Amino acid sequence: MINKNIDEYLDIFVAHKNFQGVNKKSANSLEAAIRNAIRLSKKNFFLWNGKDCREVYYAIYSLPRNLTKNKMFNGLNGKELLKKAELLGVDRISVSTAERYVRSIRNFSGWLHSQGLIKHDYFKELKPKKIDVKDNAQRMPFSEKQIKKILKSDIFEDNHNYLKWIVLIAIEMGMRQNEISQLYRSNIVKNDGVWCIDVSRDGSDQRLKNKNAPRTIPIPKTLIKLGFIKYVESCNERLFPELKYYELDGYSRNVSKWFSGYKKQWDFGKDRDFHSFRHYFIDKMKQAKVEEFITAELVGHGYEKETYGRYGGSMSVKTVKKIMDKHSSKSVKKMVTRYRLKKLTQILSR
């Protein structure tokens, strides 16, 4: 069982992370990872030696998926927990999740050592194991063929369907799911005569992932031609008021649920989810040989190279818009053509 002192110091550690700016959802995920790792030994954490830490490190990669939700594992720790998982034949956590668990327990152990609460930081040298799959292959981007398949869905027939605009923004602008879901009408601005999305956390219910996330992104002409600005003008405050706010997830939870259910009809595997739209956007820019600092600025990534990262200023929105327009999704461009033909037919038939 988890020792009382562990509960006490884990609470202090999580509070420290919150003070440092780690959001509540990430802090909760960090705490859960540490608690699950600690369950891999029956010994009091403060009595772990080097051997205990190594055994837990190796065992993390065999942890069952959804450990805390599965009641069959209640009260089980150490080898009993792993034997039960093996007996039941349940799925194990993914390698990427195991890596997160290792980083979490290392982080906690290092903090305890820095506070003088443990004599040795045995986890310091126990780094996540190397895997053969490259970082950019762990979560796959959508292909243009898959984007075309998605755009054939019925939601794209209705300009008032909020899910249509959420997906199109993800495809054409590479924004994060929650960044899109929490948009207000006030986030749609004109900058130097160009319609843009101001990604900010001005609202009390708006949150951003990191210091690089605040940015201004030009809205590509494909979205303008499809009627996005008219949709914005029809809104009162929030662009997608249908989405409910949750303390941990912001406004994005129901988008995740919708997409997880909807993607089954497209036969997409576990390696593709809503975030794959963002990977698609980044990969498209990479294949088009767009300068990395431009793409980094568009998607809210840091750019650490000395020349551009530290001394370079932002490019004009007009210049960036031209780049985005040039490399818009071919499938979305075809969608624009069909939309304009439909509008023309309606006008002529009056």
Automatic annotation (TrEMBL):
PROSITE patterns for this protein: TYR_RECOMBINASE
BP GO terms, sorted: DNA integration; DNA recombination
Keyword Transmembrane: no
Residue span(s) of domain Tyr recombinase: 137-325
Key words of the record: DNA integration, DNA recombination
Molecular-function GO terms, alphabetical: DNA binding
PANTHER family: PHAGE INTEGRASE-RELATED, PROPHAGE INTEGRASE INTD-RELATED
Protein name: Tyr recombinase domain-containing protein
Organism this protein belongs to: Aliivibrio sifiae
